[in-house]
């Protein structure tokens, strides 16, 4: 089975940096995904990690440590529009489907 | 990237009735998935829709309640049968691509 944990809510200030952590315990691992979801909208893809290390994409970076079952999403230069839910999802070895964590609701304040 | 057209976008249904949700993809994809997202919560996988064979359901979801069709590589339907207020949720389809997964815009279902 899969168990994926992330904080329920976080608050940060506009212009600051925030790190959203995700820990997972899975029976198999074939990649970790981060999605952003604004209220009432579908999730949109942010990043993908399958090897250890940091993947950087503009203001967003994602890190993975497979030995620790740990990932984080780093958001820099926060903007008000970054207020959303951030979903960590793991792909296992069988079936190619994603299993999602509970999501982290980020509120960016002026 | 693939574009998914999902409909209806929302519906209000009477308990005991059924609703069929459709997803059309603009390219052929091998794997399609159906998720449920209850208010304020994350996504839970209902089933994997397999072309040419029966869907594969996750624990807690059964074919009689959520029958799925996948007649070809660009289309799938999910039916929510004999609805009750507990079925009020957002339902999303998703496809697996080489570089990741894309989601439909979702169907917001309210059962009264």
Protein model, in words:
Chain A is built from no helices and 11 strands. The model of chain A has no long low-confidence stretch (mean pLDDT 94). In chain A, strands 2, 4, 5, 9, 10 and 11 form a 6-stranded mixed β-sheet that branches. A 5-stranded antiparallel β-sheet of chain A has the order 1-3-8-7-6, with no helix packed on it. With 110 residues, chain A is mainly β. Chain A starts with a strand and ends with a strand. With 112 residues, chain B is mainly beta. Helices cover 0% and strands 53% of the residues of chain B. Chain B has no helices and 11 strands. In chain B, strands 2, 4, 5, 6, 9, 10 and 11 form a 7-stranded mixed β-sheet that branches. A 4-stranded antiparallel β-sheet of chain B has the order 1-3-8-7, with no helix packed on it. In chain B, a hairpin with a 2-residue loop joins strand 7 and strand 8 (75-80). Chain B is globular. Chain B starts with a strand and ends with a strand. Chains A and B meet through strand 5, strand 9 and strand 10 of A and strand 5, strand 9 and strand 10 of B.
Q: Which series of helices and strands of chain B comes N to C?
A: EEEEEEEEEEE
How many DSSP-defined strands of chain B? 11
Give me the secondary-structure category of chain A.
mainly beta
Portion of residues in beta strands of chain B equals: over 45%
* Number of continuous helical runs of chain A: 0
How would you characterize the largest beta sheet of chain A?
A: 6 strands, mixed
Globally, the shape of chain B reads: globular
Report the β-strand fraction of chain A as a percent range.
over 45%
The residue ranges of chain B in which pLDDT falls below 50 over 5 or more consecutive positions are none
Mean pLDDT of chain A: 94
Summing up helix and strand content along with how strands pair, one would put the structural category of chain B as mainly beta
Number of strands of chain A: 11
Report the radius of gyration of chain B as a whole number of Å: 13 Å
- Uncertain residue segments of chain A: none
Largest interface: A-B, 20 and 21 residues
Helix proportion of chain A = under 10%
| Distance linking N and C termini of chain B | 37 Å
Q: Treating each run of at least 4 consecutive H or I residues as one helix, how many helices of chain B?
A: 0
């Amino acid at each position: 089975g899969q168990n994926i944990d992330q904080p329920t809510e976080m608050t940060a200030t506009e212009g600051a940096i925030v790190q959203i952590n995700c820990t997972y315990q899975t029976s198999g691992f074939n990649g970790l995904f981060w999605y952003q979801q604004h209220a009432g909208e579908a999730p949109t893809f942010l990043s993908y990690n399958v090897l250890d290390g940091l993947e950087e994409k503009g203001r967003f970076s994602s890190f993975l440590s497979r030995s620790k079952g740990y990932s984080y999403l780093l958001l820099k230069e926060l903007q008000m529009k970054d207020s959303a839910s951030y979903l960590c999802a793991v792909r296992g070895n069988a079936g190619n489907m994603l299993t999602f964590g509970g999501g982290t609701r980020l509120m960016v304040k002026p | 990237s693939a574009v998914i057209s999902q409909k209806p976008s929302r519906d209000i249904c009477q308990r005991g009735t059924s609703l069929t949700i459709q997803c059309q993809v603009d390219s052929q994809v091998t794997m399609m998935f159906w998720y449920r997202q209850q208010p304020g919560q994350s996504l839970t996988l209902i089933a994997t829709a397999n072309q040419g064979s029966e869907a594969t359901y996750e624990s807690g979801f059964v074919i009689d309640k959520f029958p799925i069709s996948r007649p070809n590589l660009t289309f799938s339907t999910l039916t929510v049968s004999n609805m009750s207020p507990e079925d009020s949720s957002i339902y999303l389809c998703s496809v697996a691509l080489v570089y990741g997964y894309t989601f439909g815009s979702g169907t917001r279902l309210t059962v009264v």
